[in-house]
Specification:
- β2 and β3 form a beta hairpin.
- α3 packs parallel to α7, α4 crosses α5 and α4 crosses α7.
- It is globular and about 55 Å long.
- The chain is built from nine helices and seven strands, in the order αβααβββααααββαβα.
- It has a five-stranded mixed β-sheet.
- The longest helix is centred in the middle third of the chain and has 21 residues.
- The protein has 313 residues and is of the alpha/beta class.
- The two termini are 23 Å apart.
Length: 313
């Protein structure tokens, strides 16, 4: 991907596949099948304005759409395609919405961005989609009715699940095995990928760059530990890794290695911490729970350096 490649340049491939948490099903997050895509994505043409001395580009790597539960609670109905439309200079409709559910405001950015990534919350992608779809078999479930009734993240029944040290999902929405929500998550993720690919300019003009991404939204025990996970290209895992699957950031790093960077496929990821000011000092904690000896601590530091070479505001 063209102008913003330098942003991801510090993320290197690791050589070894690492372990994962006991209850994490890696099969649900393996690389999605590629159709007509080389092992390493080389479809982008070299940019006409390529500068070996680098140039400054301006963009946004933290964008939520109606796929995120909190954005939907504020009546946002814009999906990833609309978010990219706005980022690159076209008008979109925003809330408040009218009685028919249509936005009543038209907005347009005054200076189109050079690059953008939609990073919807990985948590509850499936639940949000299922509960918003009147055709869904769980639309009238008690949990879906409560989710739709929420007008802010604070009064949503989903909010507590990103704070619990051992979260779970709603059985009446996801089913006892969570299969319904996992399948819905995969569909939403695919739509996110498709939108990024549709808006990415692969010609030599390099007018705009998009990145596939999502937000890992840990608010464990009240500390903000969110990370925006950004991928270099469209070679990405079949589903995003959320706080509902792994509850510690080093587990996220390990699983990004196992399902992406260490696969030798060209998948390349970066995790960007953000809002460390509300992390209660935990975003960059110096203790290493579970890594008690020097070698384990060194390995965790190595992973941290690979995955988190950039910090966001």
């Amino acid at each position: 991907r063209a102008p913003a490649h330098a942003l991801l340049g510090a993320c290197a491939l690791a050589g070894a596949a690492l372990g994962c948490t006991e209850d994490f099903d890696v099969a649900n997050h393996q690389l999605r099948p590629q159709v007509g895509v080389a092992a390493v994505d080389t479809r982008s043409a070299p940019c006409d304005a390529r500068d070996p001395l680098r140039r400054a580009f301006f963009g946004d790597l933290h964008v939520h759409t109606a796929f995120s539960s909190d954005a939907r609670q504020y009546d946002l109905r814009v999906e990833p395609d609309g978010a990219y439309r706005y980022a690159f200079g076209e008008p979109i409709g925003l809330p408040p919405i009218d009685a028919d559910g249509n936005p009543t405001r038209k907005v347009r950015i005054d200076r189109p961005l050079d690059f953008a990534a939609v990073t919807d919350h990985a948590e509850f992608l499936g639940e949000t989609r299922l509960c918003a779809d009147p055709a869904s078999e769980v639309y009238e479930s008690e949990s879906c009715r409560s989710i739709r009734a929420a007008t802010t993240p604070v009064d949503s029944p989903l909010a507590m699940f990103i704070m619990l040290p051992f979260p779970w999902r709603h059985d009446d929405v996801c089913g006892a095995d969570n299969a319904r929500c996992l399948a819905a998550t995969a569909r939403v993720w695919r739509a996110t990928i498709d939108a990024a690919e549709a808006w990415n300019d692969t010609t030599s003009r390099c007018a705009r760059t998009t990145f596939v991404g999502y937000e890992y939204s840990s608010h464990r025990l009240g500390s903000n530990l969110h990370r925006n996970v950004i991928f270099r290209n469209a070679i990405v895992p079949a589903r995003p890794i959320s706080y509902l699957e792994v509850q510690r950031e080093w587990e996220l790093w390990e699983l990004l290695q196992r399902t992406c960077d260490a696969t030798g496929t060209g998948c390349d990821s970066l995790a960007i911490p953000h809002n460390s000011n509300i992390s209660n000092g935990r975003m960059f904690a110096v203790d290493t729970p579970g890594a008690w000896d020097d070698s384990a601590q060194a390995e965790r530091a190595r992973l941290d350096g690979l995955r988190e070479a950039v910090v966001g505001g």
